[in-house]
Amino acid sequence: MAPERLPQEELLRLLAETTRALARNHTPGLDRHITPDNVYQTGNRANLPVILDYLDRLLLPGSAVLGLENLDHCLTQIDAGRNILFLLEHAGNFDVPAFFALLRRQAPRYHPILDRLIYIAGRKLNEESEVVKMYTEIFSRLVIVPRRELPPVPLDETAAERAAHVAKEKEAAAINRAAFRKMTLLKREGHIFCLFPLGGRSKGREYDVPVKETTSYLKAFDFAYPISMKGNTLPATVGPMEQEVPVQDRVVFRVGAPLTCPDYLTASRLLWEASGSPLDFEQFTVNRVMDLLHELHQQPDVG
Predict the structure, then answer these.
(1) Going by C-beta distance under 8 Å and a sequence separation of 6 or more, which residues neighbour residue 5?
(2) pTM above 0.70, yes or no
(3) Is residue 110 part of a domain?
(4) Residue 181: domain span
(5) pLDDT in tens, 187-225
(6) How many domains in the chain?
(7) Beta-ladder partners of 20
(8) What CA–CA distance (Å, rounded) separates 283 from 147?
(9) H or E segment and range at residue 64
């Protein structure tokens, strides 16, 4: 049944009710602080029905996953033992449950994809707030530290500040090495990884710089599937994530044609060398990925 349009006070009431329901199956403090030993965090499936019921109230008629022929190609590659990466456009922190909810509505043949999905997530989603962690832990994640999370080195730093900065860099490097090792093992078990090339949620052009680590991940997979997204049930703000307010919206994901990762990287390097771009190869390549997602986003919302 299609959800009815709800007033703001009802949306806030549902949010509070959902948060209370999630808290019943949530262990405060569990795996909040990220170390090399807990970079892989399996989904808290006890809370999956709670978040899916909530998304059913937020997703308006016309919400869908399009480009299913490309997911059929994905299923074939899974059966062949290929390593699969999803490259998902990122709008807000409800992108993940929205994608899960909408793909689950499709034919049961796509459900194995949902069972295999692991999201590559920044550690802020764990460490910023207990409430944010409560929502994000529902889905399996491989937690990393994006390079841009590390503060720049000030020119006039003291010896103590320098030592603290070096310690943070070493901690981040250890976490990322552990995450990459774990990803290698999980790929062999047939898991699919989902990466947001933008890194954080989209918060306006001045913030939207894609993360160059995306290029490193492309090197580790056989096929990548770009997935665009229109609509957003949790618009991002520049403030604390836990203060973001859900809205009802029509959300449409479109799965694009697969990229054969080695071929895509080879072509990108040739373009980069010929372009004379001031960007390094990694940034040049992820910018191309974002251009591809933008083109996919502009396609009409038809099957």
Answers:
(1) 248
(2) yes
(3) yes
(4) 8-297
(5) 999 999 999 998 765 555 544 678 899 999 999 999 999
(6) 1
(7) none
(8) 13
(9) strand 64-66
